[in-house]
């Protein structure tokens, strides 16, 4: 957010800590927070992708464009989707611990990624992560996307091990006017290399969307 110019006013949305976790309920939550905002460009990362598409379809006059980064519009893993019933709190707690250990062991206490991860884990429970994981694995807003007429920028990262780059082909099938950009980095490259993403955001807002008057980039927070 600090890398954006003064002409773009960023506003980040946080999801409720204790649920709900499904996209339909979160859509109502997000629309409530945007009730007093006349127009915006939506930036959605990871878990937030399907929600941004649903918001654009529900609020076509308010949402003037979408930037979907390192995200998906249908289940990011079909094999895991078939096993979504097993994605429960105990399993997620173990997986979360496994992912935290390398951060604790390999990164110094003052490392920015370590600090950000600690803040995130302190706010989101294993139960909440399990609920969001099940929602993501069952997501499918492709037909909803096909009805959206807003400009769309689809950003993939070339080393993303969570959302495969071939998802860009899926976007093109359901949104023929979408523009795609591939940036270097992995799934969290938005955090590690904010400058390259900020440059794409500015270009999209000022050129592709080009609304009259001040612009707002609205960012549902990633899980």
Largest sheet: 6 strands, parallel
- Alpha carbon gap, first and last residue: 17 Å
User: What do we call the CATH topology of the domain at 8-76 and 139-220?
Assistant: Rossmann fold
Give the beta-strand count. 6
Using only CA atoms, what is the Rg?
A: 17 Å
SSE succession: EHEHEHHHHHEHEHHE
Q: Provide the low-confidence segments as ranges.
A: 79-94
**Which strand order do you get reading across the main beta sheet?**
1-6-2-3-4-5
Mean pLDDT over the full residue set: 81
Q: What class do helices, strands and sheet pairing give?
A: alpha/beta
CATH architecture of the domain at 8-76 and 139-220: 3-Layer(aba) Sandwich
What is the number of helical segments per DSSP (H or I, 4+ residues)? 10
**Strand proportion:** 15-25%
CATH classification class of the domain at 8-76 and 139-220:
Alpha Beta
Helix content, binned percent: 40-55%
CATH homologous superfamily heading of the domain at 8-76 and 139-220 = Alpha/Beta hydrolase fold, catalytic domain
Q: What is the overall silhouette?
A: globular
Written account of the structure:
By secondary structure, the chain is an alpha/beta fold. It has a domain at 8-76 and 139-220: 3-Layer(aba) Sandwich (Rossmann fold). The protein is 45% helix and 17% strand. The protein is built from ten helices and six strands. The protein has a six-stranded parallel beta sheet, with helices on both faces. Strand 2 (40-46), helix 2 (49-58) and strand 3 (63-71) form a beta-alpha-beta unit. The longest helix has 18 residues, at 89-106. The protein is globular. The protein starts with 7 loop residues before the first strand and ends with a strand. Residues 79-94 have low confidence and may be disordered.
């Amino acid at each position: 957010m600090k890398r954006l110019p003064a002409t773009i006013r960023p506003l980040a949305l946080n999801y409720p800590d204790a649920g709900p976790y499904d996209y339909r309920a979160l859509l109502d939550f997000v629309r409530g927070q945007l009730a007093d905002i006349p127009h915006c460009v939506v930036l959605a990362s990871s878990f937030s992708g399907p929600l941004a598409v649903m918001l654009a379809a529900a609020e076509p006059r308010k949402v003037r464009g979408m930037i979907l980064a390192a995200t998906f519009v249908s289940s990011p893993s079909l094999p895991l989707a078939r096993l979504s019933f097993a994605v429960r709190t105990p399993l997620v707690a173990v997986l979360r611990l496994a992912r935290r250990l390398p951060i604790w062991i390999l990164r110094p206490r003052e490392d920015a990624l370590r600090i950000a991860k600690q803040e995130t884990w302190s706010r989101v429970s294993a139960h909440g992560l399990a609920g969001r994981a099940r929602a993501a694995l069952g997501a499918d807003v492709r037909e909803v996307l096909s009805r959206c007429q807003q400009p769309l920028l689809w950003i993939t990262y070339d080393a993303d091990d969570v959302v495969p780059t071939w998802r860009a082909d899926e976007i093109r099938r359901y949104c023929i006017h979408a523009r795609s950009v591939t940036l270097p980095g992995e799934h969290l490259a938005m955090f590690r290399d904010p400058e390259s993403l900020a440059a794409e955001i500015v270009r999209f807002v000022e050129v592709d969307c080009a609304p009259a008057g001040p612009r707002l980039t609205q960012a549902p927070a990633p899980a």
